[in-house]
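Hey, sorry to bother you again with one of my protein questions. There's a protein on my desk that I can't quite get my head around. No rush at all, and the record is pasted right below.
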Amino acid sequence: MTRRAWSLVESAQVIAYPAPDSGESFARSIVAEAISPDAVEIPMVVPMRTGRAPAQSIYDKGAGDIAAHLAAGRDVVLLCEVTRCSTGRSCIFSCGFVTTFR
């Protein structure tokens, strides 16, 4: 993670991130110390199953929540992560970056 990304997390009004249906979000755990206690968090809790449903509806709801914060004039930081497949190879869960929406 870059210093710039860490700084964005520190100043974020809203932080969205993927999370498994059991355990904590790997993406959030990496930046936990940088998250302001005043930040609004949008965890997108996705059951780790094959197929697009119910993940698609969860991401759609997360996108709606993010859009509402943006419409209200708040910046949103989206955390993403890379996970390992059961084969031991790296599989992209989404992408390994932090981005800010304004």
User: Anything to note?
Assistant: Helices lie at 3-11, 26-31, 55-71. DSSP finds three helices and six strands in the chain. The first strand starts at residue 14 and ends at 20.
